[in-house]
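User: Just a sanity check before I run the rest of the batch. Below are the structure tokens for the first item. I only need the designed sequence back.
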């Protein structure tokens, strides 16, 4: 079989997988699945092109063996992607049922009220279900039983720690991103196109840098969604989200992951969005670890700024939470015997984290947040 014919068949198979991903009644972690799919295809097709260039040095038997090996490799990758897709669909149904079984929990009602109030304020059409399970996670569905439903997952053991609920707003940020992705990523795509052009020039001069370019494109295709969710949460909750994120992220801040940006990039992006110019705790954390060359080659302030600008523009018609009375909320938390007149949860969240830094008891902060959500 000719190389061109083989590539044609690969592309047809790729189209079938892509169609299966996009024609389901709902979308589940589609950006991760699509990225895995694209990388699998591009890896194998790149190797096939290399064979084409090498075939003058290969006899027909060697060439046939190499093609068979690559076909097998591609099939294994596509099977794994299909398995991932099926598992995500099964998990989604399971979580929807679990959320329905938790509806009588007080914490479920309060978390749902918190999410619904923020979703309404920021014009998010979908009203996600909240479920307490094992970790923070978001499932965004385009359509399920003809009703738009997303699921936000929160750790069960944290369900009464209301001060940590800002992490749910990060997950809600994925729903916000899903509903506004063309606007959020328009400027990002323009910046990425310019960066890609620059990288291609470098690869032309030094072909050994080809893998560096592929890695950059692959990682940022996933990371852009996490940055968008982080910056949405920063827009909603300001420094309260930054402090919550700092609390939850641990380990090497420069560690590279295919699904999430390095913690250092996330914390710096959120700090900048919140106007936090210098955080001694963050500086000390970053000094404790060594930054490797791969981190440096993947960092891009321009791409983060493109997402930041888009989130800011999309939320500019919402009332600013920055002017709400955080001092009043601090007074209410410090003096629970007083009549609490604050109805908006945002200043209470912000005040709670200010007081937590001053070693204020977590229990009294959780109580104030619970009272505000219950009012």
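Assistant: Here's the designed sequence for the first item:
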């Amino acid at each position: 079989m000719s190389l061109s014919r083989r590539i044609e068949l690969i592309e047809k198979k790729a189209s079938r997988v892509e169609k299966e991903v996009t024609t389901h009644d709902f979308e589940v972690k589609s950006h991760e699945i699509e990225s895995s799919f694209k990388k699998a295809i591009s890896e194998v097709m790149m190797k096939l092109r290399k064979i084409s260039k090498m075939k003058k040095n290969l006899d027909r038997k060697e060439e046939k063996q190499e093609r068979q090996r690559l076909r097998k490799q591609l099939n294994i990758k596509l099977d794994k992607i299909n398995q991932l897709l099926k598992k995500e669909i099964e998990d989604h149904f399971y979580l929807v049922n679990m959320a329905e079984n938790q509806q009588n929990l007080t914490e479920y009602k309060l978390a749902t009220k918190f999410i619904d109030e923020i979703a309404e304020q920021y014009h998010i059409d979908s009203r996600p279900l909240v479920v307490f399970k094992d970790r923070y996670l978001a499932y965004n569905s385009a359509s399920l039983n003809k009703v738009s439903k997303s699921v936000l997952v929160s750790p069960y053991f944290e369900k009464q720690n209301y001060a940590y609920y800002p992490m749910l707003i990060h997950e809600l940020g994925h729903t916000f991103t899903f509903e506004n992705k063309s606007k959020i990523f328009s400027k990002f795509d323009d910046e990425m196109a310019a960066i890609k052009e620059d990288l291609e020039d470098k690869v032309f001069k030094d072909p050994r840098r080809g893998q560096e370019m592929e890695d950059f494109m692959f990682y940022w295709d996933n990371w852009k969604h996490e940055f968008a969710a982080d910056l949405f949460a920063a827009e909603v909750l300001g420094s309260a989200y930054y402090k919550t994120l700092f609390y939850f992220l641990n380990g090497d801040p420069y560690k590279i992951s295919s699904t999430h940006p390095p913690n250092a990039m996330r914390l710096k992006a959120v700090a900048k969005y919140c106007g936090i110019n210098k955080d001694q705790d963050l500086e000390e954390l970053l000094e404790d670890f060594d930054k490797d060359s791969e981190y440096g080659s993947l960092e891009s302030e321009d791409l983060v700024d493109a997402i930041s600008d888009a989130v800011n523009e999309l939320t500019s018609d919402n009332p600013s939470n920055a002017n709400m009375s955080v001092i009043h909320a601090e007074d209410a938390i410090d003096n629970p015997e007083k009549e609490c007149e604050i109805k908006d949860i945002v200043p209470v969240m912000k005040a709670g984290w200010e007081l937590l830094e001053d070693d204020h008891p977590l229990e009294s902060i959780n109580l104030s947040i619970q009272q505000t959500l219950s009012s």
